[in-house]
């Protein structure tokens, strides 16, 4: 990945180098996002450029309101930037029509939310298969069995979400996100609703399964321990990437975050 900082150096100035697009799983070029505010527009992203290598695991951290979720949503095709480009597999997805963007998400993106977003009256197996069924495709049941085994849910196919612990429910959400074999997997605070031990286990499941499948993983988190499990951490402040930490440790991430919040 090329992003705008070097290993363990002070934060760079806000201007960011343009990364190369060749061979990257995901490239953002000068992405800006404005929302209408009550008085003035809110500048949620102010020119983010980055490039993620295929199969890499990146954590995104930053103070509340710094633009983390907006960044994830623009990169995943859940939202459209006001300007700038989002390249996936050589295509700029930032200017697709809503229909084509929906098809892009269905075929290329897995998303894990903090609140699991499972359908309560459907079984574990049906929750996992739902996006594929809604896309009009036949679910691959052998793949389902493999995936549920990988996330530690073998034998729980018939349970309803209400009969699962928080950690189990998030494992179902992870299996659902990975079931269509997406190239990009995004997770917004996937451990935010879990206790520390369960969160660590669930994150390990997400990281290991995505690594087995060669997927590019991007996780937004407030937790320095979660971020330290990534290969690199991007720090956002006021809508810009202001630092990057390679080979992060929890202490290093916590220290840099403290620096940002001062
Ligand atoms: N739909 C929206 N309409 C108007 N403003 C928005 C909208 N979504 C986000 N914002 C604003 O954009 C800025 C960035 O929000 P975003 O949710 O991306 O930040 P965040 O870093 O993910 O915050 P948190 O850590 O609190 O979840 C904030 O000022 C927020 O209030």
UniProtKB/TrEMBL annotation:
Region listing for Disordered, in residue ranges: 1-22
Record Gene3D superfamilies: P-loop containing nucleotide triphosphate hydrolases
Record's signal peptide: none
Gene Ontology annotations for the cellular component aspect, listed alphabetically: membrane protein complex; plasma membrane
Cross-referenced SMART domains: AAA (SM00382)
Domain ABC transporter: 26-257
Organism from which the protein derives: Nocardioides jishulii
PROSITE patterns the record matches: ABC_TRANSPORTER_1 (PS00211), ABC_TRANSPORTER_2 (PS50893)
Keyword annotations from UniProtKB, A to Z: ATP-binding, Nucleotide-binding, Transport
MF-aspect GO terms: ATP binding; ATP hydrolysis activity; transmembrane transporter activity
Record-given protein name: ABC transporter ATP-binding protein
């Amino acid at each position: 990945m090329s992003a705008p900082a070097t290993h363990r150096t002070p934060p760079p100035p806000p201007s960011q180098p343009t990364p190369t697009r060749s061979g990257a799983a995901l490239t953002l070029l000068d992405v800006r996002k404005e929302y209408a505010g009550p008085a003035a527009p809110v500048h949620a992203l102010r020119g983010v450029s980055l490039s993620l290598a295929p199969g890499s695991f990146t954590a995104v951290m930053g103070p509340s309101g710094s633009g983390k979720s907006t960044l994830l949503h623009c990169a995943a095709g859940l939202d459209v930037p006001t300007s700038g480009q989002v390249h996936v597999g050589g295509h700029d997805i930032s200017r697709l029509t809503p229909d084509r963007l929906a098809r892009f998400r269905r075929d290329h993106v897995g998303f894990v939310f903090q609140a699991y977003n499972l359908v309560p009256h459907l079984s574990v197996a049906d929750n996992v298969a739902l996006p594929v069924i809604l896309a009009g495709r036949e679910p691959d049941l052998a793949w389902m069995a493999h995936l549920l085994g990988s996330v530690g849910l073998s034998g729980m196919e018939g349970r309803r979400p209400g009969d699962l612990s928080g950690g189990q429910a998030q494992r179902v959400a992870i299996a659902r996100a990975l079931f269509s074999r997406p190239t990009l997997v995004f997770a917004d605070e996937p451990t935010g609703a879990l206790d520390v031990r369960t969160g660590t286990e669930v994150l390990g499941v997400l990281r290991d399964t995505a690594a087995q499948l060669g997927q590019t993983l991007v996780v937004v988190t407030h937790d320095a321990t979660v971020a330290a499990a990534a290969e690199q951490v991007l720090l956002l402040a006021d809508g810009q990437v202001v630092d990057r930490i390679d080979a992060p440790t929890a202490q290093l991430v916590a220290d840099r975050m403290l620096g940002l919040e001062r």
